[in-house]
Amino acid sequence: MQTVAIIVALDLIFYVLHRWKHGSPWLWRLHETHHSSEDLDWLSSVRFHPLEKVFDRTIYLFPLLFLGVSETALLILAAVDATIATFSHSNVNWRIRPLIYVFVGPEMHRWHHSRRPTAPALQLRQ
Q: Is the pTM of the predicted complex or chain greater than 0.85?
């Protein structure tokens, strides 16, 4: 239960931070390194500005210091985080259909990383 609670809570924190990075000119300067990949593939999931990682880890992992999280929960969190990041950045043409409302899949992430500011909305019914 601890692991599930941590994954859900940290996912919410990640979402808020990510929106903030796209909305703040200063944070965007750090985050745009991640969006600079010419081709989106699984290696794009680890392309970041070093200061962005310091910022992320400080805020993202700060709550764990006070929650007394077990080592097992942290290991599972790390594995889930790496798996989802690799999958969502992968260069596969998979549609996860209704699960896209719960997980970020490759089709959503390709749209998110698109250089076209008017990228079309996802067509989930295809």
A: no
Note down pLDDT in tens along the chain; length 126 residues.
888 888 888 888 888 998 999 899 999 999 999 888 777 777 878 888 999 999 998 887 787 878 788 889 889 988 998 898 888 878 788 778 887 777 777 777 666 766 665 544 444 333
Its domain, for residue 95, covers 2-112
* DSSP letter (8 states) at residue 115: S
Number of structural domains found in the chain: 1
Amino acid at 14: F
119 occurs within a structural domain: no
> What is d(CA 71, CA 87) in angstroms, rounded to the nearest whole number?
24
Distance of CA 87 to the CA centre of its chain: 10
Residue 46 lies in a domain: yes
Q: What are phi and psi of 93, to 5 degrees?
A: -100, 60
Is 123 part of any domain? Answer: no
